[in-house]
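Morning!

This is the sequence you dropped in the shared folder:
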Amino acid sequence: MTTWEENELMTKVGPGTPVGNLLRRYWQIVGAVSDLEKDPVQPVRLLGEDLTLFRNERGEFGLLAERCAHRGISLAYGIPEENGLRCAYHGWTYDTEGQVVDMPFEPMCIPFRITSYPVQELAGLLFAYLGPSPAPLVPRYDLFVRNDLDKEFHVTPLDCNWLQCIDNSMDPAHFEHLHGHYGNYVNKKLGRPPALLPARHVKIDFEVFEYGIMKRRLLEGDDPETNDDWNVGHPLLFPNILAQGDAKRMTFGMRVPVDDTHTVSMSYSGRPPKPGASPSKTLRVSHSSPYESDGSIVADIVPKQDWLAWIAQGPISDRTREHLVTSDKGIVLYHKLLMREAEKVARGEDPMGVIRDPAKNVCIDIRREQVTLAAYRPPGGATQPVG
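The structure's back. Tokens below.
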């Protein structure tokens, strides 16, 4: 059983906390490039810190402290200019490194700097690094760098702690019940046919590898000799990216901690273009809410079912009241890995999966299954993203 102290350690993400320090050793996604094309200055909350994301008129990206050092006004109202972000109140201007480069009215520009974090663009996304220097490389995972796919990016804010989302990724058996039986129940209430044909899980397994944990499952009716879900599986890229999908649709499910009680669920997907068509050069970006207008969650599809399960555990799940069993061995493994890697960071070491060698980072091929959950497909039905 998880102790109160262990739950506190694993769920707190703010500056100076053990897991917060760990998560700061990885680049975290703060948005899409196209979002800043619509509005070049936006407030951002990431790992418990309130920040200002902006794009200056040179096209450079910056992530600064929330407020101007002069009189404390929010920099989210700032004006992007060639040399940085100009405060709306008195015109103090900050470059992408947080350095004041202009102080109108003052006889000289005082050498003053506010908190800033590096931002890099990859695959139409903006990655921020909140950890100590020198920063590692932004991982060039295969789906991010492939140029032969049509790409989509979907963003959903969630009222729950990030670890609830990751625990779900380490829990294969929930698919049979949450997505199978409960999903069909919801669709029945909506007057729709079953979306999935639930098959019983026969066995599950997990393997730690260089970049995270490989998850495998075998369902009743599947051949263990040829089944991709068992022989290959799909990985959780430590600490918070689940590689999903198959040859028809590859997906990275990313759970980015906003603070201790809020998370942003992000889905980055790629699929082959239609026959004869060229891949789109534009990343399609969409945003959604898990809630209906009355505040309920109608969990008729797989992503909504996951959101429901995560949110319904409360802002921070009380793991001291859980009773983990054999089907939860993946969760136990992840928790041990999380605490092990946090201890490595406390010793001044790099945690697993951090990349500093450019030669290893040209394109990181992530092994994953190519045919998923065949036992679940209703006749003539399409598959949904795997949890």
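Headline: Residues 142-376 form a domain with the Naphthalene 1,2-dioxygenase Alpha Subunit; Chain A, domain 1 fold (CATH 3.90.380).

More detail when I'm at my desk.
O.
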